[in-house]
UniProtKB/TrEMBL annotation:
<dbReference type="InterPro" id="IPR018334">
    <property type="entry name" value="ArsR_HTH"/>
</dbReference>
<dbReference type="Pfam" id="PF01022">
    <property type="entry name" value="HTH_5"/>
</dbReference>
<protein>
    <submittedName>
        <fullName>ArsR family transcriptional regulator</fullName>
    </submittedName>
</protein>
<dbReference type="InterPro" id="IPR023485">
    <property type="entry name" value="Ptyr_pPase"/>
</dbReference>
<dbReference type="InterPro" id="IPR036196">
    <property type="entry name" value="Ptyr_pPase_sf"/>
</dbReference>
<feature type="domain" description="HTH arsR-type">
    <location>
        <begin position="135"/>
        <end position="229"/>
    </location>
</feature>
<keyword id="KW-0238">DNA-binding</keyword>
<keyword id="KW-0059">Arsenical resistance</keyword>
<dbReference type="GO" id="GO:0003677">
    <property type="term" value="F:DNA binding"/>
</dbReference>
<dbReference type="Pfam" id="PF01451">
    <property type="entry name" value="LMWPc"/>
</dbReference>
<dbReference type="InterPro" id="IPR011991">
    <property type="entry name" value="ArsR-like_HTH"/>
</dbReference>
<keyword id="KW-0805">Transcription regulation</keyword>
<dbReference type="InterPro" id="IPR001845">
    <property type="entry name" value="HTH_ArsR_DNA-bd_dom"/>
</dbReference>
<dbReference type="GO" id="GO:0046685">
    <property type="term" value="P:response to arsenic-containing substance"/>
</dbReference>
<dbReference type="InterPro" id="IPR036388">
    <property type="entry name" value="WH-like_DNA-bd_sf"/>
</dbReference>
<dbReference type="InterPro" id="IPR036390">
    <property type="entry name" value="WH_DNA-bd_sf"/>
</dbReference>
<dbReference type="GO" id="GO:0003700">
    <property type="term" value="F:DNA-binding transcription factor activity"/>
</dbReference>
Amino acid sequence: MKVLFLCTANSARSLLAEAIMRQFADPEDVIASAGTAPAQINPAVISTLSAMNIDTSGLRAKHLDEFADSRFDYVISLCDRARHECQSDYSGSQFIAWDFPDPASNNDSQAFQRTAQELSERIRMFLLIQRKRAGQAHLFNRPEELFKVLADPLRLTMICILASGTERCVCDLVELTGMSQPKVSRHLAQLRDYGLLLDRKDQRWVYYRLNPALPDWMKKVIAATADYNPQLAVAQHSACVTNATPEEEV
């Protein structure tokens, strides 16, 4: 897998992302970063990564022109300017937009640390989905696939319920949708396989939540759909019923 992170200066966010993904990716993966107007690497990048015990050797700001002859499987922008300037140039790659505030413009002393932690979580989720879906078509930059998935009324309703950010177990969603447990479980498994949801098992229960590694445009589509259609997001705070067997929670 070949991944390129983009931002304007390639001095903070994209360099953090490059170093962090190298830490988690497979050794044969090619991870790089570049900028449309590169500047000097921010010293806080090195100190933040070093505090996380992440290798910084060879890390430097690079101009996008250095990769003019390279093809990447994924190109991930970390600011709106890079997305607007570069997305059309990578029509042959899966282009993903992650919009992270620039920690260099924040006076908070913990800004770089928080950005690195948020990038670390999103990158780990991204890699997890890629490994689980190896060899399959993925959802990360395919609008037609997203809308096909959401065209099913039950799947759309459950996605809107989960858009609140609250984890829900299968029995919660059975109660909230009024559908049978086998049907709810089957559609949850499809949403998980598409990469829209992540699951977490806690004893006999399996909990679902939206995948935080989704591209920002997908998150906005889901959030807007839930906000403008409150009848779909019917979730209320409800206790998990106990009449389900562990085998049914899948």
